[in-house]
Amino acid sequence: MKQVKFIIIFLGVITASSCSKKYLERFPLDSPSTATFLSSEAELDMAVTGSYQPLQFIGEDAVPFILTLEYVSDNGWERNPNQLQIIGKGIATSDNGYAKTVWDALYVGVSRCNFILSNADRLNGVVAVDKLDRVLGEVRFLRAYYYFYLNEVFGGVPLLTKTVSLAESQVARNTKEEVVNFIISEMDAIASALPVVASQMGRVTRGASLALKSRTALFNKKWDAAAKAASDLMQLGSNELHGNYGEVFTYSGMTSREIIFAIQYLRSMGTHGISRRFYSRTANGFSSKVPAQVVVDSYECTDGLTIDKSPLYNPAKPWDNRDPRLNFSVVLPQTRFIGYVFETHPDSLLTWDYNGAVPQRVANADAINPLATFTGYLWRKYASPEDLNNIDQPDVNVIVFRYAEILLNYAEAKVELNQIDQSVYDAINLIRERPSVSMPPIAAGKTQDEMRFIVRRERRSELAGEGVRWFDIRRWELAETVMNGPLLGRIRDRFLSNAPRVDENGLPHYENVTNADMMRVIETRTFKKDRDNVWPIPQLELETNKALVQNPNY
């Protein structure tokens, strides 16, 4: 049974109006006041809970924000014609509603954290020193986490570290480098105050601080810092890979030691809309957040070779002999999903339903519904069968950091430093040789370029669907390549005649596929490298804060 993690509390802030007669000045009796709030341990607990709540921020179309980044990368597509789809297509403007929503939500998180930190001195002598240090460390982590996404998405933002008045609100943007350095220094400062084992499920740990430091450093090419933070976390011994890869993203996996930090959801307190958006049409889902054909074709065969080079690849049976993580991550045609056989062939008017005591044939909405998955695939990660009868209120947790990413961070940073020793091979092979995956290990003796491309392919295979790809293609300067041109889906009534060419980065190319012209063009995207590596600063923010400057070419 899923345990209760946090009570979500809205912290109202009421400022008492001035009055000429002092006896009329009264603190509100029914809600906290900024003049007195944080005067007790109970109020501190409420405030800290409130600082966690913005983690649950639901992005476009009821999907948690961090996962929506998958649909502005080459890994996925947002079917609904909304503001997220516009960003993915490369035609966003400064009036983009989703950019504004993200900016607002993350700064709400910053503001709540700053309020606590600005008033924490009221608790000296009131709250035990050890507890106060720990919870303030949690709050500083959360503030840095919110700044991480603001900084990466918008590219340098106002760095506010205290509560500011209206008179102080005209604040210029800090540089991206300044915010990065702030995040890294904050993680160094709080690490010793955070516990190795969480005081309560979902609370920040020392491992989470090292994970945020490693990711921030890696994404900004601070290779030494990224490798050191990842190594420190590996040496901490608090986390390990989960034996069953697919289980990590289910209710059964929520307590796995692989999970370093996850966003907590609870049906009675706050849920998301993943199941409705990820489920097949036959399972009463919308099939509106879908993986692209290139994701499927990027996975290796079980011999460790890409599909264009492996003798195990059979175009007539393209799912056979493939890296098991493909089937764990993506719902493939002719496989079972939420108790139904998933099939998109237009002639498959009936499919099998295994949800009852006796299997039966039922209408196949994935073949006949015009809004069934446009790409021919679905995401399996986070789409839990347990939610079939409660499809609009799933509360499976969403992972922010897991141990496999840390191993890959370590490997990438060491490769970029050209410090390729046995520890680098061990980090990659630990992931590949996970019991449920059992892919061939990478043999020693590779060049720096060879290892660079191995790490890039491995990150895509391991982390697909988790909201990380958007950052990777920018860091590797691949976004201009992969985000320009048509986004492709499968041919509905047949397979590709032959394997596409897969380049060193693991990117499939279809110019050699004889029936490639039958693939479905989902949309045509554009990407301008002098603009689209970041999102636009919301227009309303520019109008209210004249010190802000817009990102180039928006």
Highlighted features:
single chain, 554 residues, alpha+beta, Serine Threonine Protein Phosphatase 5, Tetratricopeptide repeat, two-stranded antiparallel ribbon, 18 helices, 14 strands, disordered N terminus
Describe the structure in your own words.
The chain has a domain of 204 residues: Alpha Horseshoe (Serine Threonine Protein Phosphatase 5, Tetratricopeptide repeat), CATH 1.25.40.390. With 554 residues, the chain is α+β, with helices and mostly antiparallel strands. A two-stranded antiparallel ribbon has the order 1-3. A two-stranded antiparallel sheet has the order 2-10. The chain is 35% helix and 9% strand.
Radius of gyration: 24 Å
What is the share of helical residues?
25-40%
- Termini separation comes to 48 Å
Second-tier CATH architecture of the domain at 1-175 and 526-554: Alpha Horseshoe
Spatial order of the strands in the main sheet? Answer: 1-3
Q: What's the assembly state of these chains? A: single chain
What share of residues are in beta strands? 5-15%
Number of strands: 14
Give unreliable regions as ranges. 1-31
The backbone outline, from C-alpha atoms, is globular
Indicate the CATH topology of the domain at 1-175 and 526-554. Serine Threonine Protein Phosphatase 5, Tetratricopeptide repeat
- Give the integer mean of the pLDDT values: 93
Quick one: CATH class of the domain at 1-175 and 526-554?
Mainly Alpha
The biggest beta sheet reads:
2 strands, antiparallel
Number of helices in the DSSP assignment: 18
- The secondary structure category is alpha+beta
